[in-house]
Protein 1
Amino acid sequence: MMITYKGNKEISLKINNEIYKVVVKPNETLLNILRDKLELTGPKAGCENGDCGACTVLINDKPFKSCMALAVEMEGNDITTIEGLKKTEIQKAFIDKEGYQCGYCTSGFIVNAYALLDKYKKPNEQQIKEWLNSNLCRCTGYEGIERAVNKVIDNR
Amino acid sequence: MTKSFVGKSIKRNDGLDKISGDQKYLDDLKFGGLLYASILSSPHAHAEILNIDIKEAENSPGVKRVLTGDYHPHAMGLYLGDKPPLAVQKVRYYGEPVAAVIAKSKADAEKAVQKIRVKYKKLNSVSSSRESLKKEAPILHQNLKNYNHIPDVVPQPNSNIANLTKIRKGNYQKAAKEAKYVIKEKFKFPPGDHVAMENRSAVAEIKANGDVQIYSTTQAPFVVKELLAFNFDIPTGKINVIAPPIGGGFGGKAGLQLEGLAYILSKSVGGKPVKIVNKREDDMVSSPGHIGLEANVTITADEQANITGMDLQYYFDAGAYADYAVNVSRAAAISATGPYRVDNLNCDSYCLYTNHPFATAYRGFGHIELAYVIERSIDILAKKIDIDPVKLRLINAISKGDTTPTRSLMDNNTGDLKACINKTAELINWDQGSVVKIDNDKVIARGMGLLWKSPAMPTNTDAGAILTFNNDGSVNLHNSIVEIGQGTKTALRQIVAEKLQMPLNKVHITSEVNTKTGPHDWATAASRSLMMAGRAAINASEDAIQQLKNTAARVLRCPVEDLTVAEQKVFMTDEPNIFIKVRDLCLGYVYENGNAIGGQIIGRGNYIARKLSSMDPKTGEGRPALEWTLGAQAVKIEFNLRNYSYEIKKAASTMDVGKVINPDLARGQVTGAMAMGLSFARSEGFSFNSSNLVQNDTLRDYKILRYGEHPNYYVEFIETPQGDGPFGARGLGEQGVIGMPGALANAISNAVNQEIKELPLIPELIYKNVKEGHNDD
Amino acid sequence: MISFDFDYYRAENAKEALHKYLELSEQNQNVLYYNGGTEIVTYARKNKIKFSALIDIQNIPECSVLKSNEKQIIIGSSVPLNMIIEKNYFPLLSNSCRGIADHTTRNQITIGGNLAGKLPYKEAVLSLLVANANLKVMTQNGITIKKITQLFDKRLQLKPEDILLQIHIDKGVIDLPYFQIREVKQSEIDYPIMHLVALKQNDKIKTSLSSLCAFPFRDKDLETIINDNKLTRLEKIDQVVNNLPVPISSNYRGGKDYKEMLFRNSLNSCLDQLGSEI
C-alpha cells in the first residue's frame, strides 16, 4: 500500500537512539524538524542549499545534509546529530588541536569526520579530503581540523 | 614564585560547548510569542519603485503586518545617513530590501512575501567605481547634500563620491622628475562577501514600559545601541542590546545590520518580538559585503632601488550605500603605501557609489585591498629595476624613525619588519627561486607580500572590564568583547589569572554581551579587543588587588604595601604563612563576633586610546593610528601550464605582534586569516551580469576555500614589545589576510611571466592574461 | 524551508507509483517523482520549481538493486552515487560520478536523480552513453528495456509518468581502456566547465561530453572524425571543434575561448592515452 502524507501528520523518528514522535508536513526538511520542533539545534542552517555542510547529520551512519532531506522520508532510519555524539575521540581532538573557532561549522564537521573515522580505521589523505571537503569553515583555514583528524588516526 | 599564564597555549573556554552542539547562537534561542519576518528584496540593480501592491500579502494566513519603505522613510547610516531600512522610491542594488512581512510563523511570512507585487521602472546602473566618476553616470543619491554625516567623512553632492581622503606628503612631483625608475599600473577587483558561516539575524522587542530589547548577531552591540538611539530618537538607556556568541563576523557584523529594520518591524506590531534571519542569499547580497577596488599606482625609485615616491588613486566600489565603506577608503589612505618608507606621496582615496551590493568593514579594513595593489606593484618595480623582489622589500621596509603617510612617527614600538621578511623568505625557501620548472607542464613558483595595519577607529575608542567575586574566591570578568571565534575571552582570562596569580579555572568570563550590564566597549573589531580590553582587564585586576589588600591590611593589622595577592590568598610578603584566603575577603570580612567589614570587592578597569587625532583634510596629516602590526607573507604554488590551474602548497607568515599571549590561539587566528586572504584572491568576488545583478549569490556559486585546498601553513612571530599593549601585545586578528592576495598574485605572475592585475585569480583569468600577453609580444 | 505545501506519497512498487502519477495528473496535479531529492528540495526552497505532489520511488525494490552478474551490472535508479563509486563495478562510471557535488551529497544524490533531473550537467550519463547501457523503464505499457543512446537526447526522453527503474551495463565494457577528464572553473566542488569521457572498444574510440555545450551528448559524427586515421592529430582536433553539434557555451563559470582551449588539450590527452592513430 502506498503511504501518503498530506498536511500535518505524526511520524516517529529515531534520533540519537531515542524515538521522537513529531508532527510534520511534507514540505518540512529534516533540518527544520530537528531545529524547530525537536530542539536539536546543533545542526545549523548555514545555507539550506546543500553547499556548506553545517547541517550534516548521520543517516544510518552516513553523512547527509539535513537541509536537503524531507522529514517524511526519514521514518525507519537511524539518525544521529551532534547531540548524539558524546566525548568521542574526534570531539576531544577538535578541542586539543583547535579544530574550531566560531564553532558554527563545527557540528557538521565533527559529525562528518566521525562517520569517516567510523568507516575507516586509518583513512588516507585522499579519503580525508574527499569526505571533509563537503563542509565549509571560514575561521580556521582547516589546519586545526586536519590536525584533529590526524590525531585520532595517529592514536589508533 | 609567580605563575605565568601569559604566553601559554591555554585551551579555549568554549570548547566543550562548541564540540557538543550545545553552544547556542541567536537562531538557536527560543523566544516567547515571537513573530517572524520575511523580506522581499529588489530584483533590479537600479530602478524606480512605481507601485507596491501588498493587499494579497496582507490577506495571507498568519500575516500581522506588511511594511514598505514609507513606514519609516528616513535615511540612516553609520557615518553617513543614506539608507532607509526599506527602500524608498528607488532601489539602488540587487537584493535591496523593499518590503517586509511579519507573520505568526516563518512559513506564513515566506508564503505571504511572495504575494507582494512591485512595479519597477528600470534605470541605468553604475557598474564600476571608475564609471561612477564619469559625467554621464547616473547619480545614485540626488539628495546627498542633505544627508547627515560626521565631519571626517566628506561627501561631494551631485556626484557619486561618498568620501574622498587626500594625502599629500613631501613633494611627489619633484620625486617623479628625479626618478630613475617609474612604474605605472592599474588594478581592479570586484566586491564580494564575508561568508561568515552564521547568517545575520536580529530579534527586536519594545516592552510596555518603552524598553527596547535587541538580540543581534552583532560584533558591535554598543554601536547598535547608540545608533538606534540616534536614529529613532530613543533615550539610549532605554535600549538594551544582547549579543550571544556569533558564528563568525569578519567585519560583516560590525555597524548597524538588521537591528534597525527589526526595530521598526516590532514597532509596527505594537512592540511584539519580531525575528529576522537572513537566508544565505540575503546575507550575501542584501546585507553588506566586501568592498571592491580599482586603482592607479605610480611608484618612483632611485638608482639604489630606494622608493622615492608614490602617486596613488584608490577608487573604492562602496556599492549603493556608504555604511563602513567611507571609513574603509579613509583607512586605506592612512596606510596607502603599504609598509614602505615613502617620503613623497600623493594619494586620493575615493569612496564611490555604484549599483552594486554595498560594502561594510571586512577583515583588514581597506588594507587587504591596498596591499594587493601595492605588493603587485612592488614586484613589477623589482622587475623593472632587475632586483630580487625580496631584496627590494628589505631596502624599503618601513622601520623605526620613518613616518607613515599621515606623517606620524614610527616610534620605539615599531616592529621589526626586516626580521619578518627574512624569516618568511627562509620559511618559503625563497633562495630556491621564484620560478622553478618541474616538467613541461608544471612549475613551482613563489611570491611574497608584506602587510601592515593599524586599527582604523574613532579617536575615543574604549574598553572596560569589571571583576566581581564569588564566595569561593573565584572571579567573574565582565567584559563586552563579543565572542566571534577569535578567542579573545580566553586571552583575557589568562591576563586576569596572571595578574591575580590565581588558577585559570577560577577566572570565569561572561560569554554574551549585554549592554545594560557590561562595561562600555566600542566594538569587537579592528583587532583592538585584546589590546584595549586586555589593558582594561589589567586595570580591573590591579584595582581588585588593591581592594583585597586594603581589607586584608585591616584584618592582619599590617601596612597595605607589605601584602601580596596570589594563590587565592592575601599574605604578608615576607611572612607568607600569615595570610587570609581571598574567599574570606572578597565579599567582606566577617570577624568571629559577626562584625563585617570591607564589603564585596569590585574591580573596575578601563582603557581609552591615547593621543589619537583627526587628519588634516588637505594633507592627511595627523595621528589616526593606534599601533602598527607589521609582517611578511609568502606562498609557494605548483602551477599547471596546461590548464592554468594551480595548487597552493605552502603559505608562510611572520608578524611582529609584540607579545604572543596564547601561541595556539594566535596561530589559529593567523592561519584562518591566511586562508581567508588566499580564498579571496583565488576564487571570490561577485560576478555581475550586464544589468549588474549578482550571478553568484549562493555558496554553490560563490566559492570559498575548502578543506584540501588549504596549504601547509608556516607561522612565526617576532616579539618587539608594544609599550602600551597588555604585556607588550598588539593586534593580530585581521592582519594575516592582508599580504596573501599580493603574495599569491605575485607567485602566479612569476609562474606565467605575465603581470596579473585583477582578482580573483581563476585559471581563465590567467589564461586570458597569458594569451593577451603573447598577442602583445 | 520550502514555503509551499505538497503531498508526499511513498510507493512500494513501480506499478503503483505510475498509477498514482497518472491519477494525480488527471486531477491536474503537478507531480514529480522523488529520487534523492537534493535538486527538488533546493529548487523548491528557492521557488524555482513548483509541484503539488511528490511520489517517492526510493522504496521500490528494483530501484535499489546494485549487483553484478555474469553478463551485466545492474544499477537501480535509486542507488546513491557513493554506493556506485564504492562498489566500483565499472571504474569509468565511478570516476565520472566522483566529481558530482561533494561526498556527503553523493550519499543523497541517486544515479536516477542525476540522469533525470533538471540540471544540465548529468555527468553520470557520460559513461553510460559510451558504454551504450540499457535502461529499464516502467511505462504505461509495461516494462521496456532500451539503449540509452536511443533514449537520451539532451536529456532522458521519457514520458512524464515513466519511471527509470534500472541501468544495465554490459560487462564486456567494464575493463576496456578509457579516458576521463573533468575541468572546473577553480574549486573541484563545482559544476564542471567541461567533462570528457572516452572508451575504446574494437579499436574505436567513443566519446561523450558534458558542460562544454548546453547539454551532454555523444555524437557519432565526432567519433567518425576521431577514429579517422587519415587525419593528423591537429586536423582531428580542429574538425571535432568545428563540428560540435552545438556551439561551446559561455557563462560566468567559463568563457567559450577558455573552454575550447581546455577541450582541445583534453582531447589531445585522450588521443595520447587511447592512441587512435599511428
Protein 2
Amino acid sequence: MIALAPQGLLARSIRGVVASPKAALALAICLLLVLAAIFAPILAPQNPYDLMQIDLFDGKLPPLSRGYNGQLYLLGTDTQGRDMLSAMLYGLRTSLAVGVTAGVLALAVGTSLGLLAAYAGGRVDATIMRFVDLMLGFPTILVALMILVVFGQGTGKVILALVFVQWAYFARAVRATAMVEAAKDYVEAARCLGLSSPRILFGHLLPNCLPPLIVIGTIQVANAIAAEATLSFLGIGLPITEPSLGLLIANGYQVLLAGTYWMSVYPGLLLLVLVFAINIVGDRLRIVLNPRLSQ
Amino acid sequence: MSLLHIDNLHTVFDTAAGTIRAVDGVSLTLEPGQIVGLVGESGSGKSITGFSVLGLLDPPGRVAEGRILFKGRDLASLSPREFRALRGDRIAMIFQDPMMTLNPVLSIGTQMVETVQAHRKVSKAEARARARDALGRVGIPRPEERLAAYPHEFSGGMRQRVAIAMALLHEPDLIIADEPTTALDVTIQAQILSVVQGLVADMGMALIWISHDLGVVAGLADRIAVMYAGRIVEEGATDDVLDRPRHPYTAGLVASTPLANDRGQPLRQIRGTAPSPLNRPAGCAFAPRCDHATEVCGQEPGETAQGDRRWRCFHPLGGQA
Amino acid sequence: MNDIVASAEKVSKNFRTAPDFAEKLAIRLGAASPPPTVRALDGVSVQVRRGEVLGVVGESGCGKSTLGRIMAGMLPASDGTVRRNGEDIATLRGAAAKRARLATQIIFQDPMSSLNPRKRVGEIIGEAPRVHGLTPRTEVPALVAELLKTVGLDPAMADRFPHQFSGGQRQRIGIARALAVKPDFLICDESIAALDVSIQAQVINLFMDLRRDFGLTLMFISHDLGVVRHIADRVVIMYLGRVVEVAEADTVFEAPRHPYTVALLDEIPRIDRRARRFSAIKGEIPSPLNPPPGCHFHPRCPHAFDRCRVERPALTTLAPGLDVACHLNDGRGLSPEQQEPKGD
C-alpha cells in the first residue's frame, strides 16, 4: 500500500485541487474574486461610498451606458446613480470579509470546544455535545435572525450571529476526528512520556484533526457569505452604509419588476458564482483530504 | 492433468506513483488433494497471487501476463458469468477476516441457503439441510439452531468456522486460504487447523494455504512455495525446503526462528528490509540483503529445477540448513 | 538499590462502560440492568526483578496488556497495589511521580499508529527530553542522532516523517523515543507481533542488545511462546485475568505444570513439527464478561474434576521460582507422567 504523505497539508490540498480541471477553475475564480475584493479601491471606477463621486442624474442607467460626465457604466447604475460595478466590488469586499472572519472565528471556537469535549469526556463532553445537537437542530437563519433582533444590527453583531450558528459544525467534526485519533498509540505514547495535556491536545491531536477542518472551513465560509447575504437581504444584516452583495440585491429587488434588472441580477450572479466556486473547491478538498481515499 | 496450473503470472497495479509489479512471474502447479503452503512476508505478492486465481482483483489491479489453467481451462477465457459459477463452486476462498464473506445483516442460514441455491437448483429445505451439514462438519455445536444466528453472535474463531463451512458447501476442488488463522489465538488457531486438515483429508480437496507463518505451514503443507518480492524464490516438498533450503532467503527465515537458535543468544537475522514494490532492485530482489550476493546477482536469476524442487538463485546453498 | 524494579500486588482491574444520562435514567427506573463489568485482571501478583526479562504470555482477554498498562502507571488499578522500586505509585506526587512516570516506558504493538504522522522523527524522539528539561535544547539534535544510532538507524533520518519508514524501522524509532527519557524499565506490549518474520528477529536482537548495554529490565508481553522462550528469563502465563503459572523459562518449557501451559506449548506452530495432526484443546476462550466459576480453565481442561468447578486454585509456590495455580495433585499441577508426550 502506498500511503500519501500526510504532512505538507497545504501543498497536498493545492495539488489535489489543481489536479481536477473543474476544481482548478473554481479555485482560480475564488482567487480572482479575493484579489478583486482586496484591490477594490484601485479597481473600482468610483468609490461608491463617496457621495461627491455620485451623480443623481446618472441614476438607473442600464449597462454600457455613458453618464452625464461621459464616464462608462459597464454594469449600469443604481437608483442613486452609483456605478454598479464599483458597488459590487465593494460589496464583494464586505461579503468576503464578513464571511471569512465569521468562518475563522467559528473554526477557532468550534475546534477548541470540540477538542475539549473529546479530551475531557464525561460530563463536559455530554454538555458540549448536547449544545451542539441543539444548535444543529435549529435552522441557521432562524437563530441568526433571533440574535440580530435581540442585539440589533451592526457588522460585529452579524459576525457574532454567524459564529454562533456555525461553531457547532466544527465542534462536531473535530470531536469525531479527535476521538479516533486519541485512541491511537501515539497519543498514549505521549502520555507515557509525561507530556502535558495542552501539549498533547494542541501539539499532537490537533494537527491530526486538520483535514476535516479545512474542508468544513471552506464550505462554512461559503455558507457564512450566503447567510450574511440573506440577513442583509432581509434588512437586518449589515448597516446600509456598508452595502454587501446581499444588500445590493435587496436594493435592486425593489425595482426589479420595473425593468431595471441589472441592479439586482448582477450582484446576485456574483454572489452565486462566489458561493458556487467556494463549494466546488470544498467538495474537491473533501475528496483530496479524505484519509480513506488517500491510500 | 494438474488441477491448477499458474504459468508465468504477472499481476500489476497501475498507480499514480508508478506501476507496482505485485506478482512478477509466478508459476505454480497443484495436483488434486495437494496442500501447498504459499509463504511470504507482507508485500511479497502471496495474497495477490490468490486473488488473481480467483479473479477477485480490484482495479487498478490486473493480470498483465501469464495464464491460469484450472482443470486445463484457461480462466481468462471465461465470461464473468462463467467465472462466478466456478468461484464458490469449484474454487473457494477463505479470508483472514471472515467478514469478507459474511454479510453482517443476514442470518448465516439465509446466506448459506443463498450460496447453495446460487450454484445448485435445489429446494430451500434441501439447501438448508446442506447448510446445516456444513456447519456440523466444521465443528459448530447445534448447527440447526445456529443457522438462525447472525455473524456478530459468533466468536472470532467460530465466525471463521462459519466462513469455512460456506466455502465448503459445494465440496470445491480447490480452496485458497489467505491467512485465515493469523488473527486468531494460538489455541483457536489450532482448532481451525485441525478442522481444515480433517476436511481436506476427507474430501480430497486441494488447498493453497497463504501464510507468513512457517510454523503453521510446516505442520500442514505437503509442499512449500516461498515468495519474495513478487516471485517464488524456492519451491519443493515441505521437508526439503525447511531442512535443506537452497535459497538464502528461505535459509534466513528458517534460521531466524527463535526455536532454531540457542536461548538468550542473538537470533541469526536477515539484515535490511524487503524492497518497496515500487522500487525493486534489478536482478535478484534479495541480493541487497544476501550474504552470498555477488556481481552476477545484478542480473535476473533464472529458475533452476532439480527433481520436484526449483529455486531462483545464482548461489544456491548446498542443501544444509 | 531495590532488587524488585516493579511489582503488582493482588491487582485487579474492572472495566465498566459508563452509562450516559438516558441509560442512568433507565437503570434508575428499572428498565435496564446496570452495565456489565469486565474483570480484566483478577488479583494478579507479579514481581519484576532488576535486569531480568519477564515474559508475560496469554491469549486475548487474558489481561496481559492491561497488566502492562497498570504496571506502567498508565491505568489505575481498581484494587491492589503497584510498586515501583518499592514505592506505591498511587502515593507518589510531584517530581517523584514524574520520575516514576518516565522511568517506565511502553513499546507499542502497531508501529503504524504509535508514531505521530505529522511530526518529524527528530521531534518525535527529542520532544520529551527537551520539554522535561532532561537535555538542553541545543543538545537535543545530538541526543536524537545518538539514539538513532543506538537503535540501528541512520542519524541523517531525523528530518524524515514516519511514513517514510518501514514497519521495522518505525518500531526502532518508537524504541528510540522511549529511550530518550532514560527509563530503566521497558514494557514491550506485543512489540514484534505486527512485524514481518525477517524483521522480528532484528527487533528481538535489538531488545537483547539494549538490555545488555543499558542494564534495562524488560517486561515482554507476547502471545508467541517461541519468542518468549528465546528472550525471557522468567515467564508468567495468564488466562482470563489470572496468573496460572510463573516459572523460570527453562522450567516452563521443559516441565510445564498447568494444563493450560501444556496446551499452549503443544499448539504453538513450530517449523520442526511436520505433517502433524492438529488436535486442539476443546472449547473457546470464555468471555471475560462472564468467566466460568472456580478455575477459569476448567471447561477446557482435560484433567478437570469437581473441585476445579467451584474453587479458585490459589497461586502456590512449589519450589523457589515456581508458582502454579492448579488443583491437580494437591495444588502441584501436572506431574511429568500426566503430561502427554509432546511432538508427534
